[in-house]
Amino acid sequence: MSNIPKIVILGAGYAGILTAQRLQKELNYNEADVTLVNRHDYHYITTHLHMPAAGTDSVENTRVPISKLIDEFKIDLVKSSVQEIRTHEKKVILEDGTLSYDYLVIALGGESETFGIPGLSDYAMTIRSINSVRLIRKHIEYQFALYKNERHPQERLNFVVGGAGFSGIEFVAELADRLPELCKEYDVDPNLVNIYNVEAAQTALPGFAPELVEYAMDVLKRKGVTFKIGVAIQECTPDGVLLATGEEIKAATVVWTGGIRGNHMIEAAGFETARGRVRVDEYLHAPGQDHIYILGDNALVFNPEGRPYPPTAQIAMQQGVCCAYNIVAAIRNQQPRKFVYNNKGTVASLGKGEGIAAVGDKLIKGWKAAQLKKLVDMRYLFIIGGIPLVLRKGKFL
């Protein structure tokens, strides 16, 4: 019987794919068996999803076949859904089989957090996957197609986006760019279209300097976005949303971007969680289980001031690299490396030719920030797929 350790990676998002690629690079032949489990046979770039959702880009530019990113002679790709994680048995139950492991990497990605708001899970759409953004795009186009065929059509042209964080603002920006094209295509007066961005917190884009937040909101207001900041959605209904102020916005389209929690299977596996996320140790281990690593949206990592880092793509990538290093170190009985987050800056797109960025103490706005966003995206493509992937998927103009 083989004594080669078995490594199982659950999820091929930012953290999972970087873990797999680094293990592939660092492990010697026959030093370990590595299996990557993913629901789809492609990796998708979550930070791009707002564009195909609005219809300003093709969904094909958002995904990459996993077979193009890994060496399948070194890593076994299993296309399946995870049903259960049995830590006491060191087994993962899939929809069509079972995998045993010596080392487990949980990078399953997050789920939408509704904060208990009635009706959100029933009537709002979310930007979480390739299939979900396809649905949003088709739904938006369908509202324009229906508009002139109804007696009371105004709600068809009202679009509500819940949440003014990163995802909400970037989606609103793309939607504001797309809607004039749809108006022209369907012979609709642009003055009849309304985009509402609703945020319960007292500011949009938390974490950005007030100067950049103000700039972003000014840009989007000029594009026709109406902001309702410091106003909570109290309920989502088949007819739109009810706000905490008592106001009702009738809308056939509600897109929720207001929060992410960890995967429900983390809690089901018996881990202690906060909103589905596990507080990992300094080496990214699950508490008391040095053979289990938890990454990305499922991991709770605190900054030196004692506040949790937001679960961004940037931190997930760095966790994947650190996790791979530590697994190799464990196999070779070497010292693991502590995870230290290196914030390289933050960039948000505001649609075509516009953006905001904070890099160190520099605040960047407008066209320069938009170009920086493209460079950040191309850097990621280069990291996972080299120059060929940059040439295929990169945006140069």
TrEMBL record:
Alphabetic keyword roster: FAD, Flavoprotein, Oxidoreductase
One term of GO molecular function: NAD(P)H dehydrogenase (quinone) activity
InterPro entries, per database record: FAD/NAD-bd_sf (IPR036188), FAD/NAD-binding_dom (IPR023753), NADH-Q_oxidoreductase (IPR051169)
Superkingdom to which the source organism belongs: Bacteria
Keyword Lyase appears in the UniProt entry: no
Listed GO biological process terms: aerobic electron transport chain
Annotated ranges, domain FAD/NAD(P)-binding: 6-320
Pfam families named in the record: Pyr_redox_2
Membrane-crossing segments per the record: none
Reported cofactor(s): FAD
UniProt similarity note: Belongs to the NADH dehydrogenase family.
Protein name: NAD(P)/FAD-dependent oxidoreductase
